[in-house]
Amino acid sequence: MGFLSDTQNSVKGGAGGNCAIDALRTLARRKQVDSANDKSSGHHGLARALTVPHLIAIGVGSTIGAGVYILVGTVAREHSGPALTFSFLIAGIAAALSAFCYAELASRCPSAGSAYHYSYICVGEGIAWLIGWALILEYTVGGSAVARGISPNLAMLFGGPDSLPSLLARQTIPGIGIVVDPCAAILVFLVTALLCVGIKESILVQGCVTFANICIMMFVILVGGYLGFKSGWPGYELPSGYFPYGADGMLTGASTVFFAYIGFDSVASTAEEVKNPQRDLPMGIGFALSICCTLYMLVSAVIVGLVPYYTMDPDTPISSAFQSHGIKWAAYTVTVGACFALCSTLLGSLLPQPRILMAMARDGLLPSFFSDVDKITQVPVKSTILTGSLAAFLAFFMDVEQLSGMVSVGTLLAFTMVAVSVLILRYVPPDEVPLPPSFQEAIDSVSRRRNIGKNPVCDAENETYSDTSGKKGPEIVAIETSIDFPLLEKVTGKLNFVMSEEKRRKIAGWAITVTCVGVLVLTSAASSASLYSPLRYTLCGIGGLLLSTGLILLTWVDQDHARHRFGHSGGFICPFVPMLPIACILINVYLLINLGGATWTRVSVWLVIGVVVYTLYGLRKSRLHNAIYVPTAHLDEIYSSSILP
């Protein structure tokens, strides 16, 4: 039996020097799931100190920002009306689709890096780099935007917009008109220092702040509910009914409030610091998202019931709703809650980024400076200080409000690739793994042992190991057997099974590709309202046909048996595959396309910079640059051979 895999076949077939194919093969190279056998990493590990309560604090604290205190008024007035609660429910269900996908991959591949890590294992290095690069932008701009939102809320507590002490108040630099925000920069530095102390201490503080924010939200729910029952819920007694904007308005509101659920993915970035990731990560993600959805729905149900939706103040909906019932002091309580929410979200924004940089540096795509872990605190201190300083600089000098839309691109791209990774893991998991050149001797030894006693036939094709540079390793000869001997019929049956498995993988791989193309065509056509109607409907039909074809094929084709052995076993299993991941891809791609041309223009500039950085550094410095790919079936034998004297 030979050792060749599909990728190795392509290396042999591309010996003529096809540069384009070689480049695509380089972008598609995939790394191995971290394991005890992976001796080449040589990095100092992070502290495994987190449990389910810590993960819930991270998820809830990173998700519930000050937006909920404003979002309910804007969406209710313009889109949903009293049906705002259903908009939050639909958005929560859509976010849960991504949460299911994250939960499976986080428990199977519990290492730092989140979506970047999963994409590198399942999709390839090129896509993983773009995801990691986009997440860097997301967390940097997101953290800066959150920090600049804190000072106006603090000023309200002191009596008005200009009530902060001069040392903390916003100032305009004469001549250039730049508005600097010292308060935002100081808060970023304080959070950065906290993150450098240790992961457990940081999460303890975030948990306390998040708990205070939840208490204020419970105040809004309980006191608002009392006022609603006392006044007869005037917001629901309207001639326009519960759905004044119809089902379309409710769905439009759901697509808007969906971004209020962004943040639970921060839980996955701490996978390497969880004591029992197979059990705790899925529970942490699930509980955090459930708590957020419940709080959102209760707050929205109370507020839209206190006052008619068309009279809501879009800037201060909760405070104005309480003031209409004679409770003016509630404005201070809501402002305190907004400050707590922003501080917790700031910590949640700055926490994942150093870990993503660390994961990329471990893989050789960034300088090793970013992968250094402090031996005392067991956190990536250098990366934390650098990212915190950059976020503080942006928060101090720049009004990042126009860049805030770019935050959503990184998140939605990550959500999409995580769902694609689940499909790949289930149907076409990697059947070969990269090993560093230091394993060459062990590979040669295994290759020689498997050739002992075998007589190659004259027409047999020699099979070889190959590395990503195109070099061939020791030859392994494929043996042809004759079915004239009954004893060999079982062997022949196994070979036939291998051929059928290869065909199944090809069908599944094409089905995933067709599904993704169909989603892209369908969502692009559906979002192009200015497109000529017949052409638009035709493209929608083509996209829907491709999507349906891919879904039917994936439903018909068996999932790969190797998925049970992929990564760390015993964790969460995503249900309703392939339907659930495909629905997740469809929702996220639709939201991506509808972010607007200006946002995509800015993001494209950032991604082009990322391509340049990858081409000049990561492409050649990658740990997989000279890796030797071997079939997964023979990995244990190679590892055993490498430790023999």
Structure description:
- The protein is 63% helix and 4% strand.
- It has 23 helices and six strands.
- It has a four-stranded antiparallel β-sheet with strand order 3-6-4-5, with helices on one face. A two-stranded antiparallel sheet has the order 1-2.
- Helix 7 crosses helix 22.
List the helices and strands and how they pair.
Blueprint: H1 6-13, H2 19-27, H3 52-63, H4 67-80, H5 84-108, H6 115-122, H7 125-157, E1 171-172, E2 179-180, H8 182-197, H9 199-231, H10 246-257, H11 266-269, H12 277-306, H13 317-323, H14 330-350, H15 352-362, H16 381-397, H17 405-427, E3 432-435, H18 440-451, E4 462-467, E5 472-477, H19 489-527, H20 533-556, H21 579-593, H22 597-621, E6 628-631, H23 635-643
Antiparallel strand pairs: 1-2, 3-6, 4-5, 4-6
Estimated radius of gyration: 27 Å
Overall residue-averaged pLDDT value: 85
Q: How large a portion of the residues is in β-strands, by DSSP E?
A: under 5%
**How is the largest sheet built, in terms of strand order?**
3-6-4-5
Q: What class, by secondary structure content? A: mainly alpha
Which blocks of ≥5 consecutive residues have pLDDT under 50?
1-17, 453-466, 468-499
What is the number of helical segments per DSSP (H or I, 4+ residues)?
23
Q: What is the molecular shape?
A: globular
Largest sheet: 4 strands, antiparallel
Strand/helix succession: HHHHHHHEEHHHHHHHHHHEHEEHHHHEH
Number of strands: 6
Please bin the fraction of helical residues: 55-70%
Distance between the termini: 27 Å
